[in-house]
Design brief:
It contains 16 helices and 14 strands. The strands form four sheets. It has an eight-stranded parallel β-sheet, with helices on one face. The chain has a two-stranded antiparallel ribbon with strand order 1-2. It has helices at about 30-40, 55-60, 90-105, 120-125, 130-140, 155-160, 185-190, 205-215, 245-255, 270-275, 280-285, 290, 320-330, 335-345, 355-360, 370-380, and strands at about 5, 10-15, 15-20, 45-50, 70-75, 75-80, 85, 110-115, 145-150, 170, 200, 220-225, 260-265, 295-300. The protein starts with a strand and ends with a helix. Bound molecules: iron/sulfur cluster (2 copies).
Length: about 375
């Protein structure tokens, strides 16, 4: 397992984390077994979007050493009349948070995640009203360590992260959703018709969101990495090709700003499939050929950081150089973290001998030699 720090905090989270949907309706013994197995595989991070009280109570009992787990718990997601309710009613939000602490038998959660903000009007109500004041209070009191927000809409998410208040963004990412323009209706992501028109490359607002997060130390945690399972089935996938679990995870982890994939698992076997990401070969993770050959859609001319062009004859990590370069271009200045990361590379763009081998391997037609020249211009070596 590999770990990343959340934003500027020193909190380290596993790159593969648990979604909670698989825990709902499990017995206490099953939840304990699940959590113990997750820990054996090095998972230390869990997303709790569901307010299901029994699941939360079992989970609280299963987590024996609180400090060993990082909990991303959703505010505004409450349990009412035996069902899940998204609410902006501040009284319900406050009571829901206290319930969470009680069920989990803890006095804090690591990330207080403002739940499901997809519409611009909702964003304004949340960020200019009682909810954000309550969340700030929780942070001051140490009841949450970091402020989070979950969204499926890149336009709203970008506005929210630009407030400077959000430390962690939970966002829906996979190569299909990444092609679609912003929408306030989450159902568009699942609608086959959304993918009918010719689509090209990652939507620029999504790309901008990821780059803004990377440049400003805002960590992205990923939901819907497998598109609710659709991407794993060629009949259901909007791309009409099947991806594997490691390929989906690798796609997410190679986006700028992403620290963890919240991988839903209904069984230990499904969880094993996600952690198998670390056992498979680089070729088995590689998603480049899939994306390059999806019917009707095309990723062309822009680096997707897949690493398919490796190995470079001069051992340059082309995907990383391109990522740091694009980050600076997008922000219109040299980003300090990008410069630091660039300097820590073993080989620099200046070592490129223009052999062209990478360009023959890149299925997206990226002009790597020009990118290396730009990187030398920006980073000085
Ligand atoms: S240059 Fe092409 S093959 Fe290499 S990382 Fe970028 S998109 Fe992938
Ligand atoms: S063209 Fe440059 S970056 Fe590409 S393989 Fe050759 S040396 Fe490496």
């Amino acid at each position: 397992m590999e770990y990343k720090e959340l934003g500027e905090s020193k909190i380290k989270v596993s790159q593969i984390a648990l979604g909670c949907e698989g825990l709902i309706d499990k017995s206490q013994d099953e939840v304990v077994e699940f959590i113990e197995q997750a820990q054996k595989w090095g998972i230390n991070f869990i997303d709790l979007y569901s307010p299901h009280p029994v699941m939360r109570r079992y989970l609280g009992q299963a987590i024996k050493n609180r400090h060993e787990w990082i909990i991303e718990s959703h505010l505004c997601s409450v349990w009412e009349n035996d069902q899940y309710l998204r609410t902006r009613d501040i009284k319900k939000v406050k009571r829901g948070f206290e319930d969470t602490l009680e069920q989990l038998q803890t006095d804090y959660v690591d990330i207080g995640m403002i739940h499901y903000v997809d519409a611009m009007k909702d964003y304004e109500d949340v960020f200019y009203g009682e909810i954000i004041e309550f969340v700030k209070e929780l942070k001051e009191q140490g009841k949450i360590k970091l402020i989070g927000m979950s969204s499926h809409n890149p336009e709203v998410a970008l506005k929210a992260v630009k407030t400077g208040l959000v430390d962690v963004l939970l966002f829906s990412i996979n190569p299909c959703y990444d092609m679609l323009p912003p929408s306030e209706d989450v159902d568009d992501l699942f609608e086959k018709d959304s993918y009918k028109n010719p689509l090209q490359n990652i939507d620029p607002i999504r790309q901008k969101l990821y780059e803004y997060c990377e440049a400003n130390h805002i960590s992205i945690t990923v939901m819907k990495a497998f598109g609710g399972g659709d991407l794993l089935d060629e009949k259901l996938s909007p791309f009409q090709v099947k991806m594997t679990v490691p390929q989906c995870i690798h796609y997410c982890l190679t986006r700028p700003g992403v620290v963890s994939v919240m991988a839903g698992a209904h069984s230990i076997e499904e969880m094993r499939l996600s952690v198998s990401y670390y056992d498979v070969t680089p070729q088995e993770r590689d998603y480049a050929e899939i994306l390059a050959n999806v019917p009707y859609h095309s990723f062309v001319g822009h680096c997707v950081y897949c690493g398919h062009c490796a190995p470079c004859s001069q051992k340059i990590d082309i995907a990383s150089v391109n990522k740091f370069l694009d980050l600076c271009i997008a922000q219109g200045k040299v980003i300090e973290t990008a410069r630091e990361h660039y300097q820590s590379l073993e080989h620099y763009a200046s070592e490129c001998i223009e052999c062209g081998a990478c360009m023959k391997n890149c299925p997206f037609g990226v002009d790597v030699i020009s990118k290396m020249k730009q990187a030398v211009h920006i980073f000085g070596k």
